[in-house]
Design brief:
With about 250 residues, the protein is α+β, with helices and mostly antiparallel strands. The protein contains eight helices and five strands; from the N terminus they run ααααββααβαβαβ. Helices cover about 50% and strands about 15% of the residues. The radius of gyration is 41 Å and the shape is elongated.
């Protein structure tokens, strides 16, 4: 006791207690536990791959390919079960490709036959539209075909023989009273012109009548307002609308 007092008098003071140990697990053990957990997950994942169902995996791949537009013939029936939406999507892709190809074919034929002044081609997702200027195809108030009209119809025959598209022939007038002794109605005249074109195709080819039909629209579907002679000339036309085969309504 005397020695402790002597030390305190000399300025040494009492000895401090050692620091308390940290609570919880040591830091190295937490790192080790994280590593072991990750390794466990990794090996479980490997195990799941080794036991996967190959057939289901191929079904999944087939669905992904269809969603991306990649189609293959699957004779082993490993693709997903039949779905009407899937069939319609594949049919739509095939139809679009055929529509584009037919549009290119008709444009080349028009250029080759020097019919650019009377024929125009346009395409959309539903089909291909070939428009012929009615003034060049028919004489005014008549349904008799001109020589240029016969060239254009022969081009249409060739295109139908090279493809299996169906064709709707549409007759249009300008809405004015027709100057004809036989046809005093635009409905009669437009329908007769469409039917005359259809009959010419049947008479000069072996294309079955089931692939065509004729419709008269009179002046109910003008391209432009009939306010000028130029606009009325554009509205007087005969249209050949090509539709891909397999359409239930055309």
């Amino acid at each position: 006791m005397a020695e402790q007092e002597a030390l305190e008098q000399q300025g040494g003071g009492p000895k401090s207690d050692p620091p308390k140990p940290d609570e919880g697990i040591p830091p190295w053990m937490a790192t080790f536990a994280d590593m072991v957990t990750l390794l466990l997950c990794f090996f479980v994942l490997l195990l799941s791959f080794t036991n996967q169902d190959v057939t289901n995996f191929r079904k999944l791949m087939g669905s992904i390919q269809e969603a991306l537009g990649v189609q293959y013939e699957d004779s082993a029936a490993l693709s997903t079960p039949y779905a009407d939406t899937t069939f319609q999507e594949r049919q739509s892709v095939r139809d679009n490709r055929q529509i584009v190809e037919l549009g290119v074919l008709l444009k080349k034929a028009i250029m080759a036959r020097d019919l650019t002044h009377m024929a125009k081609v346009s395409t959309d997702k539903s089909g291909v539209m070939l428009r012929l200027n009615s003034q060049v195809v028919f004489a005014k108030g008549s349904i008799e075909l001109t020589s240029e009209a016969r060239q254009a119809l022969q081009m249409i025959i060739d295109s139908m023989q090279k493809t299996d598209f169906n064709v709707v022939i549409r007759g249009h007038t300008d809405g004015e009273t027709p100057e004809s002794d036989l046809y005093n109605s635009n409905w009669d005249l437009s329908a007769a012109r469409a039917a005359r074109c259809l009959r010419y195709i049947l008479e000069h080819s072996d294309i079955p009548a089931t692939r065509m039909k004729a419709v008269g629209y009179a002046g109910s579907k003008p391209l432009l307002p009939s306010t000028s002679e130029e606009n009325r000339n554009a509205n007087r036309r005969v249209e050949f609308f090509y539709l891909p085969p397999g359409r239930t309504k055309w």
